[in-house]
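[Q] Does anyone have a clean structure-token version of this?
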Amino acid sequence: MKKITLIITAFTILFITLVSCNKDQELVQTEPQIDQTELKILAFKSKVESPVNPKSEETISVDSAIWYIEALLNYSYCEVNSAEVVKIDSVFVTIPTSSNGDFNINNVVEAYYQFNTDLNEMIDHNKMRITDISYVENDSKANTTTLKLTTVITGSVVPTISFTFGDTDYWRPVYGDGKCDIYSGQFIGYDAGTKLQSRTNYRIAYYLPYGYSTSVEVISTGAYWGYQEYYWQGSENSCINPDEMNYWLSQVYTLTQLLTPSEEKRILYVNYDVDGYVGGSYLYHKADLSYGIWNVKNIPNQDQ
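[A] Here you go.
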């Protein structure tokens, strides 16, 4: 009897040990992996929120300052949706530069707060899709460097639209002239360019998980940059039919994939515009293509 009791006890201990190990493994498997990019951003956020040390001699390069400011703004405010663009806006901030061309960390923090304030005013009650911080110029006499913030602001209401155009999508090409053919006079304020932009960005947003962008860069394209096969060209009085709309939609999306700068980057936003000869005898669509590294958020409740 004593031998049987010992055997049962041994099996019980073994069972408890196995269950405990399995639970530990489950906890390890479900624990979110903290991304190194996110940790860098949060470290900068902590520095931004810490009391300023006026005697600090810590410096940071211009490129690093651009990366951290842009990354934290996108991390804090990015909300990708498929709503129509409300506006694309820009502001400039000038930062004192040291003798070796770097920034003092206090000046970087101050620049961040200025950009942050301006961005909040731009967003208002809308959504921020993407923000790009870029270098503008260095004034060697004044020992300053000017940076530019460009942001895409979208509405809060997300429409239900298709990836493709339908039977009624006959559009004038430019200037918000609305629809054409038997639908002439409808939807004034929109045109083929605005509709191609919204459909392309709807498709892009659909495939982006919850997250934020870093290392944003913009590539300008258009018919006169050697991309004629990807953009509409013609007269402002043209009427672009649904088949043509779908063709140009497919072409610009194809171009966004062909021009992807690197494997780690992806297309984030397409900003359509129009250009051409004076007088409107010959016009063409063009677009700025915004790319960046897309990061999925791993740490919850870190938004400002």
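[Q] Thanks! Anything notable?
[A] The longest strand covers residues 283-296.
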